[in-house]
Fold each of these.
Amino acid sequence: MKDYDVIVVGGGPAGVGAAYTAAGCGAKTLLLERAGRLGGTAVQSVVGPLMGGVESLVVDTVLKRLGGHCIDFRRVDVELYDLLRERGVEILLHAPVSGVLTAGNRVQGVEAECREGKRAFHARCVIDCTGDGEVAFRAGVPFEIGRDGDGLMQPVSIMYLIAGVDPARRFTCGSEQEARVVKVNGRTWEEVVLEAQAAGRLPETVSVVRLYAAVRDDENIINATQVNYIDGCSSADLTRAEIEGRRQAFQIVDFLRESLPGYENAFLSQMPAAVGVRETRRFVGVARLEKADCIAGRVFDDAVVHRACFSIDIHNPAGGGQAAGRDEHEVGTAERAKPYDIPYGVLIPRRIDGLLFAGRCISASHEALASCRVMCIAMALGAGGGAAAAYAAKHGCELRTVPVSEIQPLLFQRKSSEKL
């Protein structure tokens, strides 16, 4: 058994941000990751480019190390490992958390099912960056799931790489809005896709095919598959999603070969290790991020994330396309958000001490999560949690009493005019 100041559970963007920041503040930090690679869905699920605008010193540093938002899925995990080890983070892969060590209402560490057997790790502070909130769930923190009314969550997707594209004719289209503008052989890409969907050449849930630029000019990242009515915390549901999503992927590649000039020789070059999940549990915190905060661009005095910016990006939980801006039960266009702050309270459970959560399991509404769940914002959330945990460990205070103004200079630079 080993003792730490901070244990970060989950090695995705939020976990990287948390561990990097905590160790940089002098905390003895351990990062536990259940898989064999760091990077979370950016690596396991081939989700890229890294999306979301945010003013974050930590995010800027990590992106500079990775070469920007468009990452190389083949090597980013090694780059992240080196970055964290240089910072002094102890890293343990193949270590899924299976239990939480508690005393009363305080989390004191975690148990992990390592290859050599169950191991216990103690810490002053634990940060749950698992996406699904595996630590918070086991600690008994209350949570919400899905949208109001029917509890449906956003669909899951298999994202993948294709190669064999003619570099001179590589086509990109990043959103539904762009698909209504860009043209292929004199027709909008939306018209081409919807015609193929109606004819059965595409799955009925695939009404938009997004093609992002990859690091090689003969490759695209494809974001198009969609499997609805999936609970990302159910192994049975995820099994169905993995198989159905991969079948859709091959069908979409066939469609691209037939429909896009320069794609006649395209082939699926990298299939993900796991389906990408957009939302599951949202844990109840001291504060809650709301859609209105994102739309209005609200500023918080106790912000740990500054000027986050991404649309209210709700993939339709009950069909294809985008769930609409003002009415999430309609299909339409994502509603725009203004750059907004995220308060520290969304990382703190109400009644449990010694624990923070960061990434897509924070305290937020279904709609607000649709904006802040993306990777650069998740990394900034992790950085906020890491700075707070390191401060609490150093000063011997409770996480909920950390003076946020003391850690903000480590996270971002706020202009004097940006006040409530």
Amino acid sequence: MTDSPAETLVAVPLGDRAYDIVISRNAIDSAGDRLKTLFPGARFGIVTDENVAKAQLPRLTAALDAAGLAHTTITVPAGEASKSYACFEYVVDAILEAKLERSDIVIALGGGVIGDLAGFAASVARRGMDFVQIPTSLLAQVDSSVGGKTGINSRHGKNLVGAFHQPRLVLADLSALETLPERQFRAGYAEVAKYGLIDDAAFFFWLEDNFKEIASGGPARAEAIARSCAAKARVVVADERETGARALLNLGHTFGHALEKATGYSDRLLHGEGVAIGMVLAHRFSAKLGLCPGQDVSRVIAHLQSAGLPTTLADIPGDLPPTSRLMDMIAQDKKVSRGALTFILTRGIGQSFIERNVDPAQVSTFLEDIR
């Protein structure tokens, strides 16, 4: 990780697929010159959503125009529902209709939904195009824009259709976070806390001390984002295609994805909110198995609650399906192997581990007990 007065660079050293994460307050405004240098002669297809188009697209198009770069814009509705077969088809067809060539560049301008959708479209359009991530949400800046996971949802579950396709560059603009609704920012913060809970207790304790400054946009915000990106980069480099340790990044996601599906991928439960509840459930389940101290569970709950995040099933508006149906949704998780459940469990704050062959009956009893 290198710093200058204006920006922080986090390297993702993946050989011939290596790229940088650039973190600064004007990453969008300076994108034109950077992209012109990295991709001489390329045209750009900007994939964004209706909300981000209003807030950030004018900045990006002005930067591209100033650098003399040709571009076209493909806009989809905002929200998780756009991670669908229909929107995927629309984006791919729009790339082709714009006559973007294989040597041209797809830009994902938006949050995690846009990054996943645009990255997947780029992975298959003309049998593979390069793409650039310009994440505009906290969740996307610290998690989904880094590591090359792209995809869409299926009626069977979240992110079950997709590809590993690394970006060529990530531009994380800190000023873009200032236009985020507070709920979206707090949901993204769950992914920041996750990095401490996985294997860096010192980072989690630092977050406890610095959350107010992170939330208010002080210097701690840039540091939290940079440390999160560096943490994810280390894991991705060690296990790019999630055959081993990278699965640790899914702490809270097995429960969380099931809850997202149970709420119809709607505003009832944002992804980061599902992760927050899922991380609490992972710690509570670990404690029930005798693995995790109860005081650590309480500390996790207290911090996430202080960050304005939901921590219980009761915090989700409306009714949830019966436990048997939730178990069906958990069984569709991507970490399931030959029908056996895999969970990310923990022995305490910063001590997560991969547990394979988890007994579904134990999970079902646990969920039934906490409802």
Amino acid sequence: MKIRLERDVMAEAVAWAARSLPSRPTVPILAGLLVRAEGNGVTMSGSDNETTAQISLPAQVDEPGQALVSGKLLADIARSLPDKPVDITADPTKMELVCGSVRFTLQGLPVEEYPALPEMPAATGTIAADVFAKAVSQVVVAAGRDELLPVFTGVRVEIEGETLSLLATDRYRMALKEITWSPAATDLEATALVPAKVLNETARSMTSGEHVTINLSSGATGDGLVGFEGDGAHGARRMTTRLLDGEFPKVRHLMDIKATRSVRVRTDELVAAVRRVALVAERNTPLRMVIGDDSIALSAATGDQAQASEAIEAVVTNHVDGDPTITAAGFNPHYLSDALGALDTPYVHFSFTAPGKPCLVVGLNELDGEVEHDYKHVIMLMRLPS
């Protein structure tokens, strides 16, 4: 193999392909990055046997071929090279990189031992890259982090015609985002449970292109592969990952909250207040929100060592079809901050039912306007000490 690439193009491509490489591979061969040159382009691939990242880019190909070398090392080298064209030559035993007066020689890994990469499933539909990235970022904040409960570490993708829904929960909070997209078929229905971490990294890394194509290999069963395709600044990017097994809990009904009391407040003011008051919140203790007639008061404490409180103007509504007995609510401060950070509206609307019951958080574009139903965030309230 003999190719030439621009330094910046190579560095970006190697970094993209190396993103799926395991930090501690169980099989040494998975530490390798596969470089394949043919025609007028180069494809770089990395995999951990669950997730595979590939990028294809144009290149000057003098001799086609393929090589497998340490992906992490190649990425470090690519970032350190001077801003000059990079000439790469490789045979089955080694790869040589020459960039100006800089020369690196890397030991080759046996290409024949590298596992076969999965085929990209058929296209299911497309969505604007920026819309997809924003939607994913709003939902993944509610996904679980406990690998012992893998079903909660995923985002449930639900497709029903032109509506694409993303749903995540860690049992203590839930986030739902519904967006319009362009399906391959108008009567399409499918579900999949995608690892949240992979989904988030993929969505963020494909924003340089206009659209993202989503490819599902399964229907209602929820197993198989999901693939994502998008255009980057210098090449086409593809990511595939295995779907998570297990049945996602039925939590959609928890989003249908009939409020007995609601609160509306400026998002930026509440974000700043939560950040300040939470500084003294003791671990595993709630941040208290006391609801007044036209304001809310936040407070937290670390025993007798430190206390904080802050009041904010708010619009408080008591609904006639319920008993507005809730005068105070206890929030996990981190969950509340995550929910507020996921909103992109100037105002936020809280729907309360009763102490200790779930609270619905949605966005508002105007203080007296309609709530934004395309994004819903539910937080399980904490029990307040008497």
Amino acid sequence: MTVLIAGAGIGGLTAALSLHAAGIDAVVVESAREIRPLGLGINLLPHAVRELTELGLGDALAAIGVATAENVYCDRFGNEMFAEPRGLAAGHHWPQYSVHRGELQLLLLAAVRERLGAGAVRAGTRLVGFEEAGTTVRARLLDRATGAVEETRAGALIGADGLHSAVRARLHPDGGPLLWSGIRMWRGVTEAEPFRTGRSMVIVSEADVQLVAYPIGRNRINWVCQVRVSEPRPLAEEAGWNRTGRLADVLPYYEDWAFGPYDVPGLLAGSGEILEYPMADRDPLPAWGRGRVTLLGDAAHPMYPVGANGASQAIVDAGVLARELAEAAEVPTGLARYEHTRRDATTAVVLANRDMHRAEGHTARDLARITDTYRQATYGTR
């Protein structure tokens, strides 16, 4: 059996590696013509690091990531409210890593091509249609360079094609719109010395404004500004996503903020690029897939990018998917078991993320408590 995976992001590439480790062939198709190290910083929680370590990537991950030791909660003047240990310091068997998303993606891509072959990832190839045909899925693939459409067959199709998933749209044409929390986010990376231990994540909250900053290696600080600018409401698909942001739009909210060695305006101004996007998710689906087709990662359970769980949940999805397919007598049974295992767990995370930003007046300790509620649940996946 060959599994066709739509999407060469973190979830799709990890799925290919996990399937290969379980003795199942996989091919990944990616619409982008070139897979480049795009994006900024992300966090991987210990349960995701475990999956990657078991795939033999522990040393490579340690080489590109920073093992987060603590979350430090401060006010906007840098006065520390309290700190909480993370990763190994919190007693877990695996670290929590802060890492550049693009560098992690390239690490996974290199591993897939080394283990599965150079042709295992086909860039510039877009999935444009599919249907089940007996014991296979018949998929139509568009070559973006030539415009040619070819048909291929696979034992299963996994939609790991992100927030605007084409696989999800076909499976769930009435799946509902993106739902905006009312929070706009600006993100950047600035060269600066790390805060405190060098492995500290800083969370600064005041009213409707929050800043999160953490090191991602090579004297780079990833920062995220979150500002509530609206009441929650549906978000049009065509709304700006991951667009270039302007310093002038975000700076007024942080003009007199400082923590540790940083004046926050200087930290924001030091980024070579600023990205802006709305904090949005979708209502959880009552079912992800059917038959020989299912979803994974953001295609299945888009969630607010808080709590370090988006990429982590996609990685755990990949491991569970491979194990269930390897153990099942039939593909539909394996995919159904995968969904049964993962859907409730990820729904809980989606809803907990909403809870974190729905209520007015959360203190930093409240935010930590809410985060831990779902983080503790997801640690128990394996």
